Amino acid sequence: MKTRRRPYSAQRPADLGGGVWSVPVPIPGNPLGYTLVYAVDSPAGPVLVDAGWNHRDAWAALRDGLAALGIDVRDVRGVVVTHHHPDHAGLAGRVREESDGWIAMHEADATLVRLIRGMAGGSARDFQADMMRRAGAGSEADAVSVADRPDPPALPDLELQDGDLIDLPGRRLRTVWTPGHTPGHVCLYLEDTGRLFTGDHVLPGITPHIGIYPYDRNDVDPLGDFLASLDRVAELVDVEALPAHEWTFPDVAARASEIRAHHEEKLTVLRELLAGLRTAPPTIWDVAERMTWNRPWADLGPMQRGMAAGEAAAHLRTLEVRGLAGRVSGAPGDPVRFTTLSH
Prior knowledge:
By secondary structure, this protein is α/β, with parallel strands linked by helices. The protein has one domain (8-272): Metallo-beta-lactamase, Chain A (4-Layer Sandwich), CATH 3.60.15. 35% of the residues lie in helices and 17% in strands. It is built from ten helices and 13 strands. The chain is globular.
């Protein structure tokens, strides 16, 4: 079954067959519109894949959407969160309160959730502002750091590792660790029907955000991890994708190949940009300003500029790992700068 993206107002809960249902849950004020929350049936009760944004309208949509499919939210056995972002994990805690079920998340994202929950408002803002200054944001650092952010998600009861089977009696729902979009992003392979819940890892019409936080880290390579994760899911043949946004589609491998090509092209363009600025090595913020986004830089708000800088940093880091870019030493406290390297 394949559906096309429509506005949230045109979305309806759907029976996808094989004991799988989808419920569109709105994301207030976000151009994505909605998250597709999936319910997988079992003799011991349904398990949700993701839960949606923590908002009263989203909660009503999830609760009522499940009810329209004959599912009482109080009967939910558990929620598997594909990753910790608020449009996926936000309502997991509310579902747990109503159902007394469990929340499961990959251990790497669980670590991040504990870190986020341990940061008070002031310390979080200071962290953001310092990160922006080290990236070269200058006077924009404070504006980005005070942008509104949602409450952190609930802590999970279960921490997943790659290959784990989800507690879903009578079904085989296997964890496939696909880091990149977040360190602990997972896809979930429903082996008894040949379907893959792809979260944000493989989407049919857009590509997920891949960023580094803090921007100047040199001990991780999220984009490299993401590309390797794309190769991993591409090895699954004849698998239908059930993504968290947009629409379902039949060929995970083909779409994974397209997304890989998109990022390789972006890396090529970025290296050319660095070559043109070789006499004045740019900061991460300088690079972000010059890259192509879905809107002009001048039209991006503070949070969108911060995310753009994170994505610029991730692509710069992959070039660095490949030996195609390097960091330029400056005075202590100066923003990090990059230049192209011969290869």
